[in-house]
Amino acid sequence: MTPVELPAPSPALRVHEAAARIRRIADRAACGVATNSYWSVGWERGVTNAIGGDEGDLAALLTPELAVEVADWLDARAAANVRFGEPMPALALKFVEAVQP
User: Fold this and answer.
1) Pairing with 19, which of 51, 80, 88, 97 sits 20 to 30 Å away (CA)?
2) What is d(CA 35, CA 40) in angstroms, rounded to the nearest whole number?
3) How far apart are CA 25 and CA 2, in angstroms?
4) Closest CA to 78 of 23, 37, 35
5) What are all long-range contacts of 58-64, with beta carbons under 8 Å and residues at least 24 apart?
6) Along the 101 residues of the chain, how does pLDDT read in single tens digits?
7) How far is CA 44 from CA 30, 41, 47, 61, in A?
8) Inter-residue contact 83 to 16 (CB < 8 Å)
């Protein structure tokens, strides 16, 4: 049997997949926050304490709720690209690179 070669995924599909990964991780993080008493100090303090320094401060800025909003924005950009031919924002493609497993 001859192997089938598929075309590379479109930028819109790659952005949608990045959004889905962000959303899955954010949902799991929100569940952890809701069920683990460590997080009673709040997201920002908890992340800063866990990581420390400026790195922790930076990581603390992206709450699970904000991550879901980012995922929603990415999905909206992917949909606009496919439906209306709108150009894919460079930032959306940067998220694809950043969240690849």
Assistant:
1) 51
2) 10
3) 38
4) 23
5) 64/26, 64/27, 64/29, 64/30, 64/33
6) 889 998 999 999 999 999 999 999 999 999 999 999 999 999 999 999 999 999 999 999 999 999 999 999 999 999 999 999 999 999 999 999 999 87
7) 13, 8, 5, 7
8) no
